[in-house]
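Design review, sub-item: ligand-bound model
Attendees: FS, YL, KQ
YL presented the inputs for the zinc ion complex:
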Amino acid sequence: MLNFNFYNPTQIVFGKGEMKQLDSLVPKNSRVLITYGGGSVKKFGTLDKVMDELKKSNREIFEFGGIEPNPQFETLMKAVKLVRDEKIDFILAVGGGSVMDGTKFIGIASCKDEYIGKEDELLTQGMISVDKTIPFGTVVTLPATGSEMNNGGVISNGKNKLAIFSKKSFPIFSILDPELTFTLPKTQVANGVVDTFVHVVEQYVTYPINAGFQDRAAEGILQTLVEVGKETIENPTNYDARANLVWSATMGLNGLIGAGVPQDWSVHMVGHELTAIFGVDHAKTLAAILPATWKVRKVEKFEKLLQYAERVWDIREGTDEEKIDLAIVKTEEFFHSLDITTKLSDYKIGESDIDTVINSLESHGMVKLSERGDQTLEITRKIIEKAL
Ligand code: NZQ
Ligand code: ZN
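KQ shared the predicted structure:
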């Protein structure tokens, strides 16, 4: 196992009706900004429930809606202005990954006085050094990104989609009520299952390092997703299935299974370019790039792919290579069962688009990807070709 430093301060409040904890979780006598997306929280009554709770104590409440999926820098900067003008001292993000990620950026940018007027420069820093941010909590309406219990965010600026982190960007608390996710369209539930699945394998299908707990935990999440994935889509109000998806999504990317192990993230880096350029949903890019990556990188990932085949899919017959091949097929079939294609051509992305993606990766410095930093642009090109 590699050395590691694991820190996660987020308080999780999980379960049916747990919105009732909000009044005690959000500081009293505070100036609170509620951030949300394009309106689902209004349509389905979540915002009203939030308001009812917050109004139980003395607070000045402000709202900022309109954060789009793949949150845009320009939109977020309007919220930064509001935070500064109104001296907001707590933010409550109500929504999915885009709202939570956007809120992390709003919190950082609002406190970085030395970047006033050039906040876009914060987006290219990766880990942003901060003394303080605006503290925030979340009410999660979409299980997928793990943003509710991590310190990362992915922000779009035109055709650039950039990941940012800061030591102080963990939510103070996150309320995870699976019932708040019942209203999700099927395609968003499927996105959540696939995004979580790929988060886990980015931290697991690398090379062996004798991290027994992390491997078994990763395999447990993957098997849970396979068990409940289809059910969460077909029966949206099955509480138990949804609860398992919600907690899997959080545990998939809160640092726990990634501590002390090599991590890949090449699928995400390529996926982010595809979203930025072609507007394809985040998870849908991953569903196409993941199997292609495993086909092209079978030798480099051989031992962990074999472990994945045997332990996650219980494939015991055949040669090692046959087991791996079957595991890749089963992974694709799993995504298809959720009605997500594994072919980029289904999004009208073709051979002639590959140069654009490769150039964009190069401009973002994504030239040595994967757990060993040995995935060159040439290899990435082969992966994208395979994913067409
Ligand atoms: O905007 P509204 O109207 O709220 O509708 C949203 C949005 O259209 C809708 N929705 C959310 N909850 C709902 C609901 N509709 C009905 N009922 C509900 N309960 O769902 C749509 C998608 O929302 P979004 O927040 O964009 O989805 P997701 O949670 O999948 O987040 C995707 C973003 O997270 C980033 C992605 O790159 C992308 O920008 N990621 C963040 C990560 C992180 N912070 O660690 C890691 C991930 O790998 C990922 O990159
Ligand atoms: Zn993801």
